[in-house]
Specification:
Blueprint: H1 3-11, E1 16-17, H2 20-26, E2 40-42, H3 47-60, E3 64-67, E4 84-87, E5 94-98, E6 103-107, H4 112-122, E7 126-127, H5 139-144, H6 152-155, E8 162-168, E9 174-178, E10 208-215, E11 217-218, E12 222-230, H7 236-246, E13 251-257, E14 266-274, H8 277-294, E15 301-302, H9 308-315, E16 332-340, H10 345-358, E17 364-370, E18 374-383, H11 388-407, E19 411-413, H12 417-426, H13 429-442
Parallel strand pairs: 2-4, 3-4
Antiparallel strand pairs: 1-2, 5-6, 6-10, 7-11, 8-9, 8-10, 12-14, 12-15, 13-14, 13-17, 16-18, 16-19, 17-18
This protein binds flavin-adenine dinucleotide.
Length: 457
């Protein structure tokens, strides 16, 4: 049997495609990277089907790339060496929500919006950390790429919220990881050797996660938003430090954009939440006092009359701060998600403006402060998809932003292959060798999303 027929035997005719029209869609994402070739798309419905497809791919040495929502923008789901894209969207069951122990077990295709609406309907007192991303992105894909959501400044990266998973290894074994390997409860990843790390941040190069348990958190009854504004870029570091020291916030991001003129300032957006109205008022008072004292001499102002449309945008879950970006005709949007030490923000801010101007773009920023010790610093670029010159300029701007991020001691989050190469070049050689060994052990035939996290030879 040829490969197509074998795949049809496993997942049925409706679950496989090699038609040019469908392969076209899977050969690109909505970011600025070049399209690449795909040979087959497979949509399994069960873990056994995933296992069988992997066994064939491993035997025939066919590359295989897992795909959730496909929205990293950095072409992580576009194969580098052809082969099969395994689209997980048909595995879309919310298997369990354990209210008392506050976790949800979901299949790999469950979207952020599906989990969010399920919780609103059935467990209104609980919430999960929701990324500021299109609603179709998957809970599993996001946790695996070390994403962050609207409560990350308070509770940590979404990957830290993983309690355990079911994963199919490239060689076909189905493994349970975390407490679910020894207990019916998917409630914790330890105390055990911390195996989830073998699959988090690896971009699908070590196995296919079919189920995952994610922590849930109390959903506060009241939320409010406050904004402060400054033009003093050098004050950002101290202001972020002080706001974190106060330790009363739910979410915290910085936005700015050169046009329209009213946005050409540094806005600090703080979301406070709580179970009592008094609690909210107290928190708001505390931040007003902090920023008033901090801003003495006119450096920092409280935005008294935040427009209702902006209030709504910031209070939505997910917040829609990215809409601040300057979207061009053609709708392309990309960013380098630099994870930076907070004291590097002013330097990065100035460099971002320089890079944007060099390529004829308007500078726009959305940064989320993460747990007080780092920031996701988004160098945002918008482009016209239909204009190849514009797309090429964006690729160059991203490349410069990535390089600069590493130069100042930061890391590129969910980086495209070029950014991964920069990381591998900078990396301690023994660490790079360890990555190679781990990949070799788990994936002896190198079939899993090849081209990603490849050691520089
Ligand atoms: C406008 C915009 C704003 C965004 N803002 C945020 C934000 O604030 N916070 C945030 O965290 N993200 C943000 N993102 C990124 C987006 O959330 C990520 O794309 C998403 O979280 C990843 O999920 P996905 O389903 O798209 O994964 P995919 O892009 O499908 O996959 C990501 C990686 O994981 C691998 N993978 C996927 N599923 C599996 C699996 N089951 N097993 C093994 N490997 C797998 C893929 O091969 C790929 O390497 C934003 C994106 C956009 C477009």
């Amino acid at each position: 049997m040829d490969i197509y027929d074998s795949l049809v035997t496993i997942v049925g005719k409706d679950g496989v495609s090699n038609s040019q029209e469908e392969l076209f869609l899977y050969s690109r994402d909505s970011g600025a990277q070049q399209p690449r070739k795909v040979d087959y798309v497979v949509m399994p419905e069960t873990v056994e089907q995933v296992q069988k497809v992997l066994l064939i791919a491993n035997k025939e040495k066919i590359p295989i790339t897992p795909l959730g929502g496909g929205f990293t923008l950095s072409a992580l789901v576009v194969p580098n060496k052809g082969g099969i894209v395994m689209d997980m969207k048909r595995m879309d069951k919310i298997i369990e929500v354990n209210e008392i122990n506050r976790y949800a077990v979901v299949e790999a295709g469950v979207s952020q919006a599906a989990l969010q609406s399920y919780l609103v309907k059935n467990h209104p007192n609980l919430q999960h950390s929701t990324p500021e991303a299109p609603p179709t992105v998957t809970v599993v894909g996001n946790a695996l790429i070390q994403g962050h959501g609207h409560i990350s400044p308070r509770y940590g990266m979404n990957s830290d919220m993983i309690n355990g998973m079911e994963v199919v290894l490239p060689t076909g074994e189905i493994c349970k990881i975390g407490s679910c390997s020894v207990s019916p409860y998917w409630f914790t990843r330890g105390p055990l050797p911390d195996l989830p790390g073998l699959f988090i941040g690896w971009f699908g190069t070590t196995g296919i996660v079919t189920k995952l348990s994610i922590k849930l958190y109390p959903k506060p009854k009241y939320r409010d938003v406050m904004a402060f504004v400054t033009d003093d870029i050098d004050s950002i570091t101290k202001a972020v430090f002080e706001a974190n020291q106060l330790d009363l916030l739910e979410d915290f991001f910085l936005i700015s954009q050169e046009k329209p003129d009213w946005m050409n300032h540094v806005f600090f957006v703080i979301i406070v939440s709580g179970h009592f109205e008094d609690e909210i008022e107290l928190k708001k008072k505390a931040y007003k006092k902090l920023f008033r004292e901090f801003g003495e001499g006119g450096r920092m102002e409280f935005v008294e009359d935040l427009h209702p449309a902006l209030r709504k945008r910031f209070l939505d879950v997910p917040p829609l701060a990215a809409l601040a970006a300057d979207f061009r005709k053609g709708g392309g949007f990309e960013y380098t998600g630099a994870i930076l030490p907070i004291d590097k923000v002013p330097e990065a801010w100035r460099k971002g403006i320089e890079i944007a101007h060099k390529y004829g773009m308007i500078c726009s920023y959305v940064h989320q402060v993460l747990m007080g010790n780092s920031i996701m610093f988004g160098f945002n670029y918008s482009f016209n998809r239909a204009d190849e010159e514009d797309v090429e300029k964006t690729r160059k701007a991203l490349d410069e932003s990535n390089r600069f991020t590493f130069e100042i001691g930061g890391m590129v989050w969910k980086g495209e292959v070029g950014a991964q190469k920069m990381a591998m070049e900078k990396m301690d050689p023994n660490t790079a060798a360890l990555i190679k060994r781990v990949k070799g052990l788990l994936d002896p035939n190198g079939i899993m999303n090849p081209g990603n996290w490849e050691p520089v030879t």
